[in-house]
């Protein structure tokens, strides 16, 4: 519990620290390019951790939380350890970095009641050969965040792992991180289809290209404003001004839809959007559909250059163990069920180790594009995609 000297030093530091002092430089995950150092204050992260724990119900009953996420990212250090700390709950860290087997063992041995993870982490845990060997009966809740989560995966977390109170979170490093989070009182089928409601004391808006708020149900640029907004990017005022306006709205770069009940659905990122012959294609929509195929374990969709259409759809697919299907099988599965222009022109079957990931377990789609262009010999194709340097 700490020595007398530890308590003396803590008291001394408390006297010198102010809420708006910079607490840490949290580097963004770098899914779309080079990471930037989001500088967060004590006020940012302590309040965000408190409100995450409050919405998770950690103030009402004790939780033993398995946190396989790394502590050098907001998911692990703010949503994970700090949220547990301010509500006097228990953290279990299975390993220094994510290891599926270590996480499964920790859940079993420590009787964890909640489990955190990105979709990729949960896919790896559920797909591990030792997964059936452990007891998960202690689990009743969990949080999935960091990337769009397929509905089929959320359903498995609820039905197989017992996460009856599964919550989905959305946020960015720049917002400390959580801006939206499910409410457990919402029906389970509702919770797994969106990223929840705006967090307490934050504002959100969905706007068009002119900055005007769009009606509910329409897509637009998701903006966030409030206490959680970062101090700025470390030593990069230009990048800071590009995402935070004088009105203090943070431009997330994500495409969102506000539903009638106030929840928000994330359609994708503007940088990931595929423009095929003038048609806008949101990779998340295609991924959510293909993921329902019984042979598919994971799917990621990107755009690759095409001389006629500018861009076309390319899908990276990882099959479940023992499954054998062809490109034609996938296209037949899609035909007539999604728009013809959303059906992948290119399908690349991949192993689990082929997907380029950030250190926090998110897929780096900009690297996938470059790999795909090389494999498909599309580097020299003339299109707006290549001409734009994408």
From TrEMBL:
<dbReference type="InterPro" id="IPR045851">
    <property type="entry name" value="AMP-bd_C_sf"/>
</dbReference>
<dbReference type="Pfam" id="PF00501">
    <property type="entry name" value="AMP-binding"/>
</dbReference>
<comment type="function">
    <text>Acyl-CoA synthases catalyze the initial reaction in fatty acid metabolism, by forming a thioester with CoA. Has some preference toward medium-chain substrates. Plays a role in adipocyte differentiation.</text>
</comment>
<dbReference type="Pfam" id="PF13193">
    <property type="entry name" value="AMP-binding_C"/>
</dbReference>
<feature type="domain" description="AMP-dependent synthetase/ligase">
    <location>
        <begin position="13"/>
        <end position="234"/>
    </location>
</feature>
<comment type="similarity">
    <text>Belongs to the ATP-dependent AMP-binding enzyme family.</text>
</comment>
<dbReference type="InterPro" id="IPR025110">
    <property type="entry name" value="AMP-bd_C"/>
</dbReference>
<keyword id="KW-0436">Ligase</keyword>
<dbReference type="GO" id="GO:0006631">
    <property type="term" value="P:fatty acid metabolic process"/>
</dbReference>
<dbReference type="GO" id="GO:0031956">
    <property type="term" value="F:medium-chain fatty acid-CoA ligase activity"/>
</dbReference>
<feature type="domain" description="AMP-binding enzyme C-terminal">
    <location>
        <begin position="285"/>
        <end position="362"/>
    </location>
</feature>
<dbReference type="InterPro" id="IPR000873">
    <property type="entry name" value="AMP-dep_synth/lig_dom"/>
</dbReference>
<dbReference type="InterPro" id="IPR020845">
    <property type="entry name" value="AMP-binding_CS"/>
</dbReference>
<protein>
    <recommendedName>
        <fullName>Medium-chain acyl-CoA ligase ACSF2, mitochondrial</fullName>
        <ecNumber>6.2.1.2</ecNumber>
    </recommendedName>
</protein>
